[in-house]
Design a protein that fits this description.
This protein has two domains: 130 residues, no CATH class; 43 residues. Helix 2 packs across helix 3. It is α+β, with helices and mostly antiparallel strands. The chain starts with 10 loop residues before the first strand and ends in a 15-residue tail after the last helix. The chain contains six helices and seven strands, in the order E-H-E-E-E-H-H-E-E-H-E-H-H.
Length: 208
Amino acid sequence: MAINSNTTSTRRYRVEGQLPENFHDEIRDRIQKSAFREIEATNLKEVSIGWVPVNNPFGAEDIDDSFDKDGYIVLSMRIDKKSIPSQTVKAYIVKEEQKHLEASKKERLSYNERKSIKEAVMVKLLQQALPISAVYDFFWNTNTGYLYFFGTSDDLNNKFIELFEETFKDIHLFKMSPYGIAASKSISEESILSLEPSSFSIQEGQED
């Protein structure tokens, strides 16, 4: 999801950890090490994930300095995934098993033969498959320590957190849920857990 979309959904995080004094000097190297890499046709990886520039998510793999914008780090996380429908895989396996039976004059294939055929089918289909791409933006205010990620599913956010913390090492993300916001205000855990739900209603004729 893009920052400049007409409609956006975000999750907010607080960035925890001490930034090194030379953070802006070394951040490009850290990002480049975790930059997105295309899945090559001969590569059997099903998923590739990494950073790309917001303004050029499908371009060159090298990341320039455009991600650093006056106290903000602005980047996109790109995920490419090769997906093969299970029925397609099954159909190809049955076809290959039939070929082997006819060639070997056997009535049944052994477990190892069927396993080998399945692996060979998966290799062939993955090499032929085109990946599906998705891009999700984030911006991080390095002065306030708040970060906004433009994606809401739990699985997607877990992938983002993993890539972010792998890239920036000793820096961690703290989800700003209602609990997280309260904790960020130095409200004790005991006080938070002791809160009771409240019900609010406006009576008919009640003035504002």
